[in-house]
Amino acid sequence: MAPQASDIADKLDHLKNVQAIDPARQKAARPRRIPPAILFLAGGLTGGAGVALAFLLAAPGLPMVTPGAATDDAAATPAPLVGGSRTDTAADAPAQANAAAPDGRVRPAAPATTGAGFSAPPLATASIPAPTLQAAGFSASGFVVARRKATVSAQITGQIVRIEVEEGERVAAGDVIARLDAQAADAEVARMTAELAAARADRAAADSQIDEAERALARTQALIERAFATEALLIERRTRLARLRAESRQADARVQATKAGLATARVRRDQHIIRAPFAGVVVEKNAQPGEIISPVSAGGGFTRTGICTLIDMASLELEVDVNESFIARVRPGQQVRAELNAYPDTPIAGRVVAKLATADRNKATVRTRIAILDEDENILPEMAVTVFFPATRDDTPG
Q1: Closest Cα partner for 142 from 384, 389, 388?
Q2: Contacts of 165 (CB under 8 A, 6+ apart)
Q3: Is pLDDT at 258 greater than 50 in this prediction?
Q4: pTM for this structure?
Q5: H or E stretch including 215?
Q6: I need a labelling partner for 78 at 20 to 30 A (CA). Which of 93, 130, 134, 150 fits?
Q7: What local confidence, expressed as pLDDT, does residue 117 receive?
């Protein structure tokens, strides 16, 4: 059964009285936005229901709200706080935007007006500086590596008779690391020494024969002047002197060749004494006395190719893998801070040396070399390390 028009009018009067008496209810009874579908249904209803809905929408004192129309809720909604003070309402946002100063400080805006002609007094605003955006630093992990690291070996194949060092010992450049069996080398040096002595003796004999031949030639020339000697004898004396001089030059050449052979024999003998190529610390001992060592891997597992591993502790540096997304913020000479995983409470100052000219496709990283500025005996090769790259001025977004 359709409601009567008189009943609807009584309900409207009662609603107006309640809104006038109770502001809270008046706020709660504010009109809601009517969807277009409901308006369409209201036009399609007939009879008492259609009349009641149309009367309700057109009742005096109740503003009709259609899609797209603005209400007074924005004006009645409390404004948000900025820096401890309340700013203008949403309706005055364009005025606030026009009042913003170039230096980033908030300026007081003009008084806002709300519905029903009410003018709100100007609200106090706080003058605060614009926030400064700073890019955060990043970190990368890696290890301590030595730029000078060598496996000390021999230049010749030989049997080890003595090793002069142990792991952890410090050696200077030229110190003896090990000795090989040098009996054959000593014998070669002795043989070449004897040959040199023989060559020198041959040269001395040739020189003495030259002196005798020169005196004989002089006597023959004197006899020729007196007609006591023939021309044939003079030619024979001259020929013998020339032959002796040639033999003397040959003896001298043999002396020089023997000297070179002796020097080679001595070098080979010295190769049986293995010395440290640079100052450092022995970190690994790879051979024992009695084993055969060779510069090539001949003999399979029965032949050693190295005696010990030597590291120059002054050449230690850090190698870290920097993610590709941060590599543009790494520059040579950049100051960084490192922490060893073994000593996290001891920071180490460092400086970027270089970025390798290739990336790791599997890890999407670029290897970066970092010099250690703080020398510390606790820094050992192959230690894990974390390097912190601080934010720089260039990293700050504009």
Answers
A1: 384
A2: 171, 175, 177, 178, 282, 285, 308
A3: yes
A4: 0.54
A5: helix 183-226
A6: 130
A7: 45
